[in-house]
Write a structure and sequence with these properties.
Layout: E1 9-13, H1 19-22, E2 28-31, E3 43-47, E4 54-56, E5 61-63, E6 69-76, E7 84-91, E8 96-103, H2 110-128, E9 136-140, H3 143-153, H4 164-180, E10 186-190, H5 203-210, E11 216-217, E12 227-228
Parallel strand pairs: 6-9, 9-10
Antiparallel strand pairs: 1-2, 1-5, 2-3, 3-4, 6-7, 7-8, 11-12
Helix pairs in contact: 2-4, 3-4
Length: 229
């Protein structure tokens, strides 16, 4: 899991000219503006899919405009015995704005179910909503989805790396994303629900667990050994 900053700024890497840097262009990132600078005039950016923070100039990090729409996308089920999963898009107040239902028996493992569920929920959102005239951040719980869909939003050449069924849906979704980026920035940020073992859970998280108000999340295992998030 990526580190979570109290004062994190979500952004996208842009305009890096080196061969190594060009591979990072378009990826979602975050940085803490209150943290000590690694070098003068730079920040330590944590980039999706990159193991260690990278020192970058602020002009190489595109921030979403203030007032952007913040949405989260995830897949879960009510109890461990249920074969039905809900893929949902929710706003910051927890209101469900898009939902698709999946049956776990249709998937070979939890990873495929999670990928398909996130894509289906996003497709439902784009198909049924008139997008606001402001930037949109989608926080997704799968890194591959974040990397792939950000490629579409940056209009980069996309090399699909998902399963055949997921690739087909991702391409259709990608076309909607490209069209939607004409009037707004759309970003997909990897945001795992899990608590990193180095983190200290807040009292709110501890109370949620004690009150049994947790989210049952499909793990990428061949057997459905879910995690309680």
């Amino acid at each position: 899991a990526m580190p979570k900053f109290k004062n994190a700024v979500t952004c996208r890497v842009q305009n890096l000219a080196s061969a190594k840097g060009q591979k990072l262009n378009g990826l979602a990132a975050s940085f803490d503006p209150t943290a000590a600078a690694p070098q003068a005039g730079r920040v330590a950016a944590t980039i999706d899919g990159v193991k260690s923070p990278i020192s970058l100039k602020p002009e190489n990090l595109l921030q979403l405009r203030p007032g952007y729409l913040d949405l989260s996308v995830t897949v879960g089920r009510k109890d461990l015995r249920s074969e039905t999963f809900n893929a949902v898009v929710v706003d910051t107040k927890g209101k469900v704005v898009a939902r698709k239902t999946l049956n776990s028996t249709s998937f070979k493992d939890g990873a495929a179910l999670r990928l398909q569920g996130i894509l289906m929920a996003l497709w439902d959102y784009f198909a049924t909503h008139r997008l606001p005239n402001r930037d949109i951040l989608f926080q997704v719980t799968d890194l591959n989805i974040a990397l792939l869909l950000n490629s579409y939003s940056e209009k980069k050449k996309v090399t699909d790396g998902l399963g055949p069924e997921q690739n087909d849906l991702a391409q259709k979704l990608g076309a909607k994303i490209v069209a939607s980026c004409r009037n707004r920035a759309i970003m997909f940020k990897y945001a795992p629900l899990r608590i990193h073992r180095c983190d200290h859970p807040s009292q709110e998280v501890l109370n949620t667990v004690k009150d049994s108000k947790f989210h049952i999340y499909p793990c990428p295992c061949e057997t459905f050994l879910d995690a309680l998030e």
